Amino acid sequence: MKPDNELVVPVSTAIADYALAVGQALHFLASFENRNELAIYGDLVRADRDVIRVRAPEADNDGSIGIDPGVELVQHSRDMLESAACAAFEPRSAYHLGKVQKAEDYMRRVRLGQTEQGSFVITLLAPIPPNLVAPSQIDMWPHLEQEPFERQVTGMLTQSLHSAHDAIVESNRGDGLKAFINAVSKGVSANLCEALASIINRSDGADVSVTWARTRPTPVPRDRIVFGRADGEILTEAVNFDCANLEHFSIRLGVARVCEISFAFFFGNPFEKRGECSPKLLSGARLHFA
Q1: Where are the beta strands (DSSP E) in 26-167?
Q2: What global pTM score does this model have?
């Protein structure tokens, strides 16, 4: 590192110029990462959390958006993160959100942080256990399954978003729905696609980033995925195709109003699910009552 790129970090508040040294450190980091100093400060005070940022490009010049789009942005961002939590537990083509208990337990610990300017940015603060043993190779990502579940979720979120973006590119090249089918094992589900498409279509695009907790170091401090408006149309079409092309349903209603649903085709991945029926999944399907 060159001398003019060195950063002096104060280790005690007792030093006379502590505030000045902190201000200089924030200015250096903001210049180095090309980000706002307040955003850098927020990352430092939230060093024990993975910080998920979802930016709506359509914000006005004062950094505000309409109240309804704002509420929907928070809800769809929550659904996107919960889809990743479900995939971290078990990658599948679709989930009934709220029914995967481990994902629900995780979501109860996630906090909604302060909004930030830079268009309009919401922040989700995901809890991360500290790494008490210094990693032997900080330049390499550990295997996701070796991480605590909390880090598996945010790792799955970035993996699934990158995979969804790649699937969009591959579908444009002619692979069509097959590109999304192949991405199921990487966390891409109908739920993720629907939540992401809703964010994109309502906000004229989406900019999602994860700043990794400093207390559990990673090879890079931040990961970012950007989607354009046209990407939302492809994701919406993938979800609509999924619901319109269920080739077989058999439903048996029991005393406890439990239904058994056999999918011969769902998002290209045959599986069987037991649980409550989702009205959305029933639309456009052929029903055979026992």
Answers
A1: 49-56, 111-112, 116-117, 120-127
A2: 0.73
